[in-house]
Amino acid sequence: TANSSLKQFCFSSSAVRNVVIKHVTIIGSGQMGAGIAQVAASTGHSVTLVDTSDDILKKSVKGIEGSLRRVVKKKFADKPEAGEEFIQKVLQNVSTSTDAGSVVQGSDLVLEAIVENLKIKQDIFGQLDKVAPQHTIFASNTSSLPISDIASSTSRLDRFGGLHFFNPVPMMKLVEVIGTSATSQETFDSLLNFSKVLGKTPVSCKDTPGFIVNRLLVPYIMEAVRLHERGHGSKEDIDIAMKLGAGYPMGPLELADFVGLDTAKFIIDGWSAMDPSNPLFAPSELLNKKVAEGKLGRKTGEGFYKYK
After folding, report:
1. Where does the 3-hydroxyacyl-CoA dehydrogenase NAD binding domain start and stop, copy by copy (predicted)?
2. Measured between alpha carbons, how far is 29 from 35 in angstroms, rounded to an integer?
3. Are 154 and 55 in contact (CB under 8 A)?
């Protein structure tokens, strides 16, 4: 028994040792991936950004530098030299690669922030699972796909969770930390601690559709669309009502345009397929029509509103 308790002690202390995340690999260098990389590098982590081409990665790092310059303008307003030093120090923490397989071998955390496509996510994690060290935690930044479905392509179900950041990552304080029924407590604690070290406020979520924020926000946006569709309120009145009556910074239809009508449709269609009888997940003809016409919101210049 002394021997087994010694073994137990060695195992648990090694698990605890592995909880500290220092080296982070981020798969996908788009808006979310770059934002997470910036925040992780700013808080002393060594970060490797992975994407399909060097050109994409160069653009991403340029974006991070631009974002850091905006941060520094405020933070180091009266000390430009210190600001420049900070930028260089942060950028030194960021490296890039097009070879995820070799990079993850030195990683404590592999965080994926790519297109919301289950098959692609599963394929990437399935491949990386074979080469990543045993202690490495895998996490997805998905906003609408079940974490357990993504994790199913790996053999590290206990070391797999969700870390859902919000856009723009450097500004938004929240991280939803998602545990599946198989996620170990050590892994979950690791992800919570990592979020706190980044200067974010984590909330603990179950692996249910939309976690907390989107589970409340998307049906709210959809109900506003349906209300307008039924002729029970103009889009302007609906938005003004929620801004002035509920204190929201944006009305629901403005918010839909900001998020992207294609994104809202993608999320609601996915949930509707999972739970067709749930009236909260019912599709909207008006939303479908706008997406079909390519009116996707701010990014295309028109959604519910026109943008110059």
Report:
1. 23-208
2. 9
3. no
